[in-house]
């Protein structure tokens, strides 16, 4: 079969919707075909095993969550300080909020990874590579904070998004305010 990247991406996007709406247990090749509006068997032609489908969804989630290179370049011309670091984090939260299906699908995969070694392997590899890329980006950009602080921000943003997407606490704080408070509390002033 000839490689059709647009069809592959469309199927992965449909799989993300299925994960977000039906959970990991509802993720089947047939459910992806129905969500994509493709003939029965199309998803299994592109992703013969469920593990192949999961790997494609992880890759597609990464593509959809990637920052806009132009926005990163524009921001990088600013002073490398806590305010710029906070701006980058607000952008991460904005991207996670922009498409709740992607964020919910990611949480579904994280829960499924506790039950499935194959999912844990695919998702764990992507998460670790993403974390290392964040640490490298932060270091190369001359931003404050190091590996430990980046890990703390990952944990904090994960919790913030899980709260926002499910049964959120009514704290009176906007998401940008929360991110700014994370930065103020997790980055020591001496990190500037």
Automatic annotation (TrEMBL):
Pfam families recorded: TetR_C_31 (PF17940)
KW Metal-binding (keyword) present: no
Highest rank taxon of the organism: Bacteria
Key word DNA-binding present: yes
Stretches assigned to the HTH tetR-type domain: 5-65
Keywords: DNA-binding
Name by which UniProt lists this protein: TetR family transcriptional regulator
Organism: Microbacterium aurantiacum
Upper classification of the organism: Bacteria, Bacillati, Actinomycetota, Actinomycetes, Micrococcales
